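Listing S7. Sequence submitted for prediction.
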Amino acid sequence: MTRCAACERWSVLGYQWRKSSYSADASNCIYVATTGDGTCLLRESDDPGVVLALAPGCLGALLRQIRLGSVGAR
């Protein structure tokens, strides 16, 4: 992961956002940060104001469900 230069306003709040290494280009990026209690925060470059907060350990479960095709657009 690389540091997200476009997320300086979030860094002020104490979050260091990083761009996922799986994000192919600058227009379709997923950013990840963690809080002091281990909560994983996810957001996308298209709508940085919407943040998905996952309890510690839940990110792995979410990724497993995505890989299995259990999670999709509705």
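Caption to Listing S7: primary sequence and predicted structure tokens for the chain studied. The chain has two helices and five strands. Helices lie at 8-12, 58-68.
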